[in-house]
Each structure stands twice: as C-alpha cells, then as structure tokens.
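JOB MANIFEST
job_type = single_chain_structure
chain_count = 1
residues = 297
[input]
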Amino acid sequence: MMSSDWYPDGQSNERWTCVKSSVSRRSILESDLVLTSMGIETRIERRLFEWRLLTLDALATHARVQLDLYYKENKQRQRPYTIYPTLGAGYYGALVYLCVIWLFFLIDQANFIGRSGVLSAAAVDDGAWWLTMTALTLHANLSHIVANSVTGALFGYATGRYLGDGFAWFLILVSGAFGNLLNALMRPDTFYAIGASTACFAAAGVLCGFTWRKSFVKGASARFNYLPLAGAIALFVFMGMEGENTDVVGHLMGLAVGLGVGALVGSYDIRRLGSSGQKLSAIAAIGLLAISWVFAL
C-alpha cells in the first residue's frame, strides 16, 4: 500500500480508477487515510486544478461505499443557532427616557432653568461633575430632541431587552456622563454642549460591546459574532459625524465608553441581578440624575 503522490509512468499493467477528486489536498489525504486503514490500496495523483484519489479497479466500488459511509457518519452536525435570552421588556426604560428629555425640553423652553445644566468644559475642570449628566437632558431645538428621541429610544429599547430595563439605563446614563466628562477634558474652557446624543451612542456601544462579549448568537462562527463591533463603527461613521453643529468627539467618547462598559458587564451573568437588582439600578439612575440637577440649580 502506498499514499504518496503518483504520476502515471505506463509501466504498470494494473488498472487504477479514480474514486474521489477535489481541489483540496487535505480532503484527499483524509480519504486516503480512511481507505488505507481498511486495507484498500491507494494512490494520489496531482492534476492541474485538482487532486485525485485512485485505487485498483477491482476495489473501486468497495472504496466508494466505504468513503460514503465514513462521511455520512462523520458529517458535522450544524449546531442550532440560539439567541441570548432577553431580560427585560425594553420599552419601559425607553418610555421613561422619552418622558425625561421631553419634560426638561418643555421646562427649558419656559426659561425655568436657563443655562444651569449646560456642559461647560471650564466648570467640569473645576469639579462640576454633575453637568456631565444634566447636559444629557437638554436640547437646543425641536429637531435636536426629535432626533435624539428616535435614536435613544431605539438603542435603549434593544439594550433594555438584553440587560434589563433598569440596569441598561443605569449603564447608559453612567456611560453617557463619562463620555461627556472625557469630551470636556479634551476641549478648551470655552467649550459648551447639550444633548442626549452622547448617551444615545453610549447605548449603542453598551449593546454592541455586550452582544460581542456574550457571543450573542450561540452556534455561529466567531467572525459572525464580531459583527456588533463592526456595526458600532459603521454607526459612528454614518451617524456620528453628520450635521453642522455635531459634537463628533462627544459621540465618539460615548460610543467608546459604552463599548468598554458593555464588554465588561458581558463577562458576568446579568440574570443574577434579578428583579430587585433591576429596580435598584433604575432607582440609582433616577437618583443620580436628580442629585445632579440639585447641584446644578
């Protein structure tokens, strides 16, 4: 028996028959090993665009049957795809988010708070950390708040579905505030900003980081589960740099912090929080925002 590469030389009177051909040498070597282990004599022939496995003509039928049986028994069974389980309804947190930003928009339009909650780089440098949260609730005009209502509710809903409404919005608030902090520290003292867009990108980042870390689609290839990270980058490219007064750095900081936070919490089992943990997270988020506005006013 032999399994080395063979090229016809016309010196043998034995008739050889091809029982398998493939462009993959590995596949031919595997089949060769199967037949050789069964005592079937084989030879491998290299053609221009393919490899061929040959055996004696008298053994060809038996060889093909054995190869069919081998590949049927060893055929890789495709694992069923399973999606990471949901932990929350999603829309509860999204509705609270919409109520909060629209409430503050109406209050601001009535000139009740002035510029108290505006993010100021100079003030943040002096320790006014609360402005990183209060600025998330303020908007310049109707188009500004409508845009952030849509994107924030959409990504907040999806994040709440997989992390639970309370915990998701706590992470979104903290990530958005930290993104504002980094943004302020990188800007000159004359820099001012308002808007929930940093939190919107933070929500997208938390969702993408979490689903990547959790290998969101069980049974899929590793490359498939890198899609959330690619999606986060695409989101920033197509949405984070649009508009004349767009705070590109703020969007980038929110997305980056959200990705890091999402990947971090993705290494833990969020289900251990339970309903009580979700409620405490929601209370903590509302409490942080309320305290921030107390300091701001």
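[summary]
Confidence is low (pLDDT under 50) at residues 1-11.
The two ends are 90 Å apart (CA to CA).
exit_status = 0
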